[in-house]
Amino acid sequence: MVIEFADTNHIGKGFEEKKFKSSIGSYWRICSEYLMSKNLSLLSFVRVLISIFFLGSGFPAHATQVAVFAKFEWAQAKLKAKKLPHPRSFPVGDETSRVFNTLLQGERRVGFAALSQRVDLNLASSSLSSLPKAITDARTPDQIAQLPVVIKNFTYKEVRSSQDAGFVALVSGNERYRKDAMARMLALAALDPAGETGVVREDLSAMLVARTLALGLDWFYTYWTPLERKQLLQAISVRMEDFSAKLIHGPRAIEKFPLDSHNNEVLGALAEISVLLLGEIALADKWFDEFTPLYAKILTPFGGDDGGYANGTAYGGWDVGEFSLRHWDTLKRVIGLDLTQKTWAKNFGRFLVYFVPPGTPVGLFGNAAEVAMPETWARYAKAYSYRVDAPLYRWYARQWFQEDPTQLELLTAPVPAGGDVSYPVGTANSAVFQSIGWAALHSDLQDRARTSFYFKSSPYGSVSHSHADQNSFVLNVAGRQLLIDSGYYDYYGSKHHYGWSTHTLAHNAITFDGGQGQENLEKPWGDASAKGDILQFSTSEDVDMVLGDASAAYHGKLKQASRGIVYLRPNMFVIFDKVVSALPHYWEWNLHALNRFDDSDTKNLIVRNADKSACINFYSSAPVKFKQTDSFTVPPLRTSSERRPDQWHGQYKTNNQISDFWSITVIRVDCSAVSVRADFNAANAKIKIGSREFEFDGQTLVKRK
């Protein structure tokens, strides 16, 4: 039985103040240990026990329990799939007819025609012949370290060409395209499953090859000779058994260690392959039993039912948009398993809306957050909305226009019924995603010229593609980056990645004694214990407040590290900080930008990007000095195609070592004038800004006037 946990901490329309106390009882390490680290209420403890009993894995339990697929008949679904003729992924019926008709004469005809033209131009061309040379040409440590990415990119290019030609042939009946696709697939089947595209060497490439061959077998079933079918099935089987050994029976089985990005990206494909091959090979029954219910159960371990995705916006898009959506299509068409009914899947669109809003300059939090991806964001927005229909998602998809219409996640999607694409009345401008500890505060969500402030204090720590950046923030204004997450994702595990980008010092967060923060140098790949927690959130027409606690993230070195944010809509922010340690430290308040801070008056910094600016006023309980540099402690890998320019890193640092430190920072977008009075005492920090007053004691954030 599969159980889900619904999130009742959901922001409604208009003003609805809610203070959220995290009840996460367990997290999964990507490293080596299972962590339980919260003092749970009796109710939360019972929920965790229920989760462990029913899910067999102890996934974080959030609020009330909702049964989804609890009564799904897996045995009957398996029998149904075996009786279905090929192509199962596009079975004869109304839905397939609608999809094909819109490709040939409907609104997708332009994209399909362009895809057909590309297939025609690429007939008989292959990237696989260049792969051995690319491997042998890798000589420097950086080149050798990036070989898995090189292999995946070559593989991806070829499987894309194979699937493109195959899909055009399936829809149009063009024999030349079919023969080209089949020839490509046979070449893929000839690749050594113990070599570069094997599970051990490059698991994503192994998945891409196996899935492409399964789709090809399904699409052109009657055209393959018995010998060719055997070749395809053999190439698939070796990889599927290797995945079974790794994900199901290995020492780091996915149910015990679910916070692994690659394992989660491949699991959906393994479920899809299984249903396509049922009845064709005896092992498919085993694969179905191992992978398909498990995928329906997990779907993603990186967020709760609020739709959040803790592994960052880049990987959230790639995971769902690039991989999952088409898996969902096949599972629904073949066995009737509609994964869009999962609460997380229904709400993932809200995550996109709030953290990748139309016109955003870059992504947020984690690896590759610095990359602008307007084509993929547009494509994912539309592809998702085709499958998960809601007024907000229809509006969101309509705001994007840079997508490549030839991509298969668009062309293969179900044809939506359509509906109103206007912005839903009453949609909140700000939202919290409690399961991942992210908050988005917008001046006006539907306005591309919006001011956007993003805050993170995540219970997932710095695992997988996340960084050690709890209680950090990012500020964008009208599509311009003002205060940024610094650093680059040159490649996973690079000196810059492990030595700068993932560190607290690289973020708008607090460090001490020369840049010490939340990173665990013994586990540079990430640490689940470096976690934060959003304790309070409220939103109204003119004031938003959020409070995060990152005390646990500093590995016991600090007794308290709490940050409160007040947003005075539309253009002013107040940031309260309290840090406490048993030992005295030099405290460092870090901020980062693309351009040099104007520090002619260090009490009134100015950050600029093109035509947008903000003034930063810093008040503290102890004297500080400001300094800035445009140097990374470890520079990124720079090439002719990836120049990765320097960025600016500012820091307020206490003049002396002290154990307790309070600060209040006022950020005024466009440097609008306002009167400010900040006061500190042993119990709290207070600010009067204009006619309004706020108070922060490290545990709560209160509006006094």
Automatic annotation (TrEMBL):
GO terms for molecular function: lyase activity. It comes from the Bacteria. The keyword Lyase applies. Keywords: Lyase, Periplasm, Signal. InterPro entries: Chondroitin_lyas (IPR008929), Hepar_II_III_C (IPR012480), HepII_N (IPR032518). Its main location: periplasm. Residues 170-408 form the Heparinase II N-terminal domain. It is found in: Periplasm. Residues 427-622 form the Heparinase II/III-like C-terminal domain. GO terms for cellular component: periplasmic space. This is DUF4962 domain-containing protein. PANTHER family: HEPARIN-SULFATE LYASE (PTHR39210:SF1). It holds the Pfam family DUF4962.
